[in-house]
Amino acid sequence: MATEPNPTRPSKPAKPGLSLHEPLDESRVEELDRTLPHALGPEKSILSSMLKDPTQWIGRAHEEGLTRDHFYLPGHGLLFEILTELNAKGSEIELVSLVQLLHDRGILDHIGGPAAVTDIFTYAPNAAHFMGHLRLVKDKYVLRSVIQTCTEAISEAYENPEETTELLDRVEQHVLGIRQGAETATSFNIRDSVKEVMTRFQEILVGDADVQGISTGYPELDRMSKGLKPGEMFVIAARPSMGKTSLMMNIAEHIAIDQNIPSLVFSCEMTAFQIVQRLVFSRARFAASQLGKGFKPTREELLRIKNAAEEIATANLFVDDTPGLMIDTLRAKARRRKREDNIGFIAIDYLQLLRSGSKQAQNAREREIGEISAGIKALSKELEIPVIILAQLNRGPESRTGKSLGVPRMSDLRESGTIEQDADMVGLLYRTAYYAETEEEKEEEAGKAEMILAKNRNGETGHVPLSFLAELMRFEPRAFEPHE
After folding, report:
1. Is the CATH number of domain 203-477 3.90.1150.10?
2. Which of 96, 184, 395, 418 is deepest in the core (most CB within 10 A)?
3. Cα separation of 435 and 335, whole Å?
């Protein structure tokens, strides 16, 4: 039997940034004076089983998420990659032709020569312990990844002490990446999937499945959007005083309380107290403006307020009112809340109040908005949950005339280019009475509001009629009128 190769890898020059896919430069952890975690025997056992029965064990290794990076010895990782390549092509895998192939490609010596390949082939007398050995190999990789991330974070902390928030974001993202990489996908019985498909088909036939994602509480918006879906970013934009915060909180209330989906609200403009106060009185359908004028609520109103407060208090709704929030901090908080409370929805008020700490964004507001917008979209995809983010419109609606006065367009988005590109849906909110030029028009349009769904990547666009109850800070569905 060939002698065991030296488990210490040759050191490589340090590379900037954090990467879980590069071999760890052990010269950067010399102070630990320890050999990195590894399991050479199990690595050889896995490869031995794959050589003896490629059809069964190469496919099983892929199911378990095993990759070249999981192997400590580069030669083992290289052999694994060659075996998976041959298996994918449907080529026969046997010892003699494999050694010849490695020789022809000039990589036989990287694996240790013919003796090393033969040693691996004969190493495991049977594959009974394949899964146990595979778990050991993956566990050691996780330990090495943790060491690598922490070591490079220490180095970056010394080299770039001024980029604190960016460093924290990168470290947290990589730690979560280690956790996700350590998890193995679960296989589902196809019969369960077929049953689910047919149930869904039946619901569609009878008209009960218009919403494929999370319902917003507004039927026409749900019909057009098919609900808020994981990984999607929905931008709701409006001029000041149009009620976009109220609409966002109405949707958040419906999701967190009526549908019992844990939700997180970032409010950069209002305090948590103001947000909760709005929620309580709006849900109780009580006009808070009446208070302080000698008005005393009736017994029925007090009961509604009490019930609304209890519903909100027991809901999985989290409010963060940190002012001037950095995008990296927001993402870190969202990840933590996802991990600890499994949130299924995020709402952000609003985009232009967020900040980016990168050097490139310091003197270019458009670039900063672009980084924030891209960061929110990436967060939605990473956590696999829908995100609603509010945005301000420029003065374009006020500059229009005639029937177009006040009607927003997607081009009215401030620093609109990147927002339009990143968003899956863009809803433009406005209230017609706000732009009425005569008292008669104001009276006729009172309470009317509308959202123009100007972009919908996965569905139709159009108009969503709404009613705005100003005294309750609440939007409600409104039926289409004949002229609309």
Report:
1. no
2. 418
3. 41
